[in-house]
Amino acid sequence: MSKENSNSAELDVLIVGAGFSGLYLLHKLRGDGYNVRAVEAGPEVGGTWFWNRYPGARCDVESVDYSYSWDPEMDQTYEWTEKYPAQADILKYLKAVADKNDLRKDIDFNTRVTQMTWDEQTKRWTSTTDTGRSITSQYVMMAVGCLSVPKEPSDLPNFDRFTGEVLRTWNWPEDADLTGKKVAVIGTGSTGAQVIPALAEIVDSLLVIQRTPNFVIPTRNRPLNDGELDEIRADYPDRRRRNRAHPAGVFRSDNPKNAMEVDAQERHDTFQERWEGGGINFLGAFADLMFNKEANDAVCEFVHEKIDETVTDPAVADLLKPRSYPMGAKRPVIATDYYETFNKPNVTLADVRTNALATFTETGVEFVDGSTYDFDVLVLATGFDSFTGAFTQIDITGRDGRKLAEEWTHQGPATYLGLSTAGFPNMVLVANVGSPSVLANMITAIEQHVEWVSHMLADQKANGRTTIEAEPIAQKQWVETVEAIANMTLWPQGDSGSWYRGANIPGKPQLFMPYAGGVVEYEKAIDATRENNYSGFVTA
Ligand code: FAD
Ligand code: NAP
Description:
Structural class: alpha/beta
CATH architecture of the largest domain: 3-Layer(bba) Sandwich
Largest sheet: 9 strands, mixed
Bound molecules: flavin-adenine dinucleotide, NADP nicotinamide-adenine-dinucleotide phosphate
CATH topology of the largest domain: FAD/NAD(P)-binding domain
Shape: globular
Number of domains: 2
Distance between the termini: 21 Å
């Protein structure tokens, strides 16, 4: 049982992070009877949806699917208002979950874990926080997020010279008001494509600094119609089951046909119909879009055509067309009025592949052709140190003094089933590297993990075992499997600089980090290992 004073605690399980993963873990494991607490660096629950408060922030999975499936009562009562939820709506939902289940009393907010050390004698972890707490626990659950550590702007030339205001999309000040200001945005990924149209509406001038263009699919967000939520509620249990049975963790009406098996007209009509429908369903237009280069070329050509139709200046349209990688190799972007925004008189596109950013100045930027732009506010939408960032920023020492940050920084991350890493017993990764995570509706991926963890802890107890850890050989094979499955698709191809591979961070080891086989195959794999007495793990 627990012993606790203001500076120390002894727990069965420590959860790091209070986003979707941490909150469900806390609820589930507390219900299972463990002495469990969560620590959260931020002042509030929500994770991603607390931190990313930039204008335009919105989820690209439908509200009714981007929510927990384990509370049927909430399914029947929670009032989603739009097809795709805005950041504030998701945060409101997660606060409601925390309140309904009285989760806050077991969360230490404004508390960052900075160090974790495994003690082989006691078979426990000691975690130290930036508030001076020391917490020991038998297990640590790393619910730290795949996209929770921003990329440093160290590769921006003379960035420190800029004396204007710098705003970061991943920690947007609640009181920021850019109305009537001269603004520049760096980054045209999913975040950039949402913040750019939103800012263009209110600022005096907007300079968009683009390095690699993205394929941007229209969201087609809308309010939920009268009665629509009632229909969904009547079907909710089946809807949840359908989501779990689809590789993407969310049901999509996928076309079973291959793009190159139909004639050009049918191909075009299908793309057009999906484009009008909007959202990630566009990716289900044909079965082979991520497997066959010719099919992918066809969808790229279609999006190029849409850019030409939308953007009035042909030179700007040309710069907005991605050409150096297959669609999907970088995460496809879903946004509203993105291409339309470049027709606005207050918006200027600066493409740094054709005219490199030479330097930041005190008042703005200068490009290699000598042109300069001044602005009051710079918005960084430059992405994340994905997957590994939240692990390597903690000083984690495993068995025999092994340092996780050193291993993962030099060799890249290695896990067995995305759940455990050899040398770090009783440390469980939640919906992160080595599992479907970001290639699925993440809520489905998170629920799979939390359920598995709950079973695993019960089995450990029932079998009188105290430790569990990835077996090195099984881990090596899993890393190879993750890479091999990715290599069967077009995901790893082209010059995309994708964060899926760590290619967005200079010097980061490159390997495909999420498991691309989908949540259905993945669930079979994690269930099989459990049914097989935790094959691939060393248990004691
Ligand atoms: P997070 O929400 O990232 O929570 C992790 C928490 O851990 C954070 O609050 C962080 O502060 C805390 N933490 C980290 N390290 C420490 C530490 N050392 N000490 C204490 N606390 C720590 N996914 C989708 O499926 N669909 C979408 O449309 C979608 N949109 C997204 C939009 C944005 C802007 C971003 C950034 C991500 C998006 N994602 C989306 C992915 C999203 O991250 C997941 O869907 C989900 O919210 C992840 O939940 P999580 O709890 O695993 O991680
Ligand atoms: P991102 O996809 O990594 O995009 C970062 C952008 O910054 C890229 O355009 C990148 O250009 C640019 N950039 C970085 N460093 C630069 C430099 N030194 N000079 C010029 N440009 C630079 O990050 P993100 O947009 O924050 O998205 C990350 C992920 O979060 C998404 O892929 C998605 O999974 C999730 N997300 C989802 C939504 C949603 O719609 N639901 C919204 C936001 C985020 P390069 O491409 O050339 O590197």
